[in-house]
Amino acid sequence: MSGSGGKGSAPATVGPAVNPRLDRRGLLATGLSFLSWGLLPLYLKLLASVPVFQVMGHRVIWACVFVFAWLGLRGQLGAAGRVFRQPQALSKLLLTAGLISVNWAVYVWAVADGHVVDASLGYFINPLVSVMLGVFLLSEKLNRWQWVAVSVAAVGVIWLTVQLGHPPWAALALAISFGLYGFVRKTVAGVDSVAALAIETVLILPFALAWIGFEAWRGQGAFGHQGPAMDALLVLSGLVTAVPLVLFAYGVRRIPLSTVGLMQYAAPTLQLITAVLLFGEPFTHVQLIGFACIWAALVIYAIDGFVRGRAPKPAASVQAAEAA
What letter would DSSP give residue 165? Predict the structure, then answer.
């Protein structure tokens, strides 16, 4: 998620066999990552006096520093270096770096401009966007109830568009950029998630440094001009960006994906609560109806997945599995 800022779409590399249902550390790490993304607006609100693209630049710069420091402490710098000898993986990570940059920038803007409710909507929509990407880009087939879920979600978006007079651009930008990010990331084979994040930040780093340098040259740079507390917050924004992604990469390898799928809604739920109760953003009946459609779609999709997951396998499939 961005912001979540880049939250959770990073695919996990296959690790040693672990009993996922008993791994409490994996559950804790994943839970902490979603908790961090859910409370991220509180942190970004402290940076509201800093222009959006400067916040974005500092997030990239300091996240890059912290991620490479982490890899160095674990003796895994070579994993990141090897990616530069894999042109196909590198080209895909260049694309994901661009997508996550868009996602982070829109999310920072949404918090600064009082649109955290819209941001939370984006991350509620995101799973269904991923479903549609599978349909259009992978020719995946949906069953009747999955189509019902997607249709109900579409009704919610159309309702908001008609009532507000425009599409919920921030929500759609976050959902689509993060959905595409996760889709492309899943095709990057043989690269550890944390190493991939390191490469993404390196690829964005020149642009971040150039922008921060340009703003400083113009005399508009926030760093060093808004006090040591603000400087510390800008530096720590990299840690706030990197740590949840590292926790997620660790945890998602150790617990069932179905559990991850249910836990992911904690982040936008916390964002919505924060926006309405702490930031005082309006949550009108119009928005409630739109959100209710999205929530209903997610419930339908989750129940369908649960039922299909518990359905007995065809005899032929069972025999094939036993023969293997």
Answer: S
Helical (H) or strand (E) element with 26: helix 24-45
Token reading at 1: 């998620």
CA 57 vs CA 27, 89, 135, 175, 210: distances in Å? 31, 24, 35, 22, 9
Residue that the structure tokens 């800022």 belong to? 5
- Rg (alpha carbons) of the chain, rounded to whole number: 20
Structure tokens at 89: 């993986």
Per domain, the residue ranges of the chain are 2-11+20-308
In tens, the pLDDT along 80-139 reads 888 888 889 999 999 999 999 999 999 999 999 999 999 999 988 888 887 888 878 877
Burial class from Cβ neighbours inside 10 Å (0-12, 13-18, 19+) for residue 166 reads: exposed
Q: Are 248 and 33 in contact (CB under 8 A)?
A: yes
CA distances from 81 to 152, 192, 194, 205 (A): 45, 12, 12, 16
| pTM beyond 0.70 | yes
Is residue 107 within 8 A of residue 5, CB to CB? The reply is yes
The answer to whether the beta carbons of residues 195 and 71 sit under 8 Å apart is yes
